[in-house]
Amino acid sequence: MTRALSFRPTEPSDIDLLVEIARGTGVFKPMELDTLREVLDDYFAANRDHGHRAITLIDAADIAGFAYHAPATMTERTWYLYWIAVDANRQGSGLGASLLKEVEGDIRALGGRVLFIETSSLPHYEPTRRFYVKFGYDCEATLRDYYAPGDDMVVFRKSLS
Quick one: 5-159 is in which CATH superfamily? Predict the structure, then answer.
């Protein structure tokens, strides 16, 4: 049976649920969840007009995840994936892969050539790091003690051209 997946631009009324989806993953710190809310508020206030993109994933008529990506300023067609999350109860079912492929396709359609993703080195982010490697991302750099002592930033890269 084929899954009824669709993607649509994120709407302001989605914000509370998207923050709850991120919270439900158990990965993000309270500060990061506050930042997500600010990022989404800023998206609707101004950043949407500057090329930022927020995509909501719909699975069987329910919001199941989201992604937020944007062009990197002062670069030639370089993009960042800032947020990607799938409802914890639906993880492991291919929704994250579908969402990531949608982001990559969106960036390609906009002429993007490379996508960067930053994540943490903490042990509970290991499934996230494996996910990116599984979908063809190279671990490009590690910035030691970036987020906090012992919490490195791991940077992944994938050519989209």
Answer: Gcn5-related N-acetyltransferase (GNAT) (3.40.630.30)
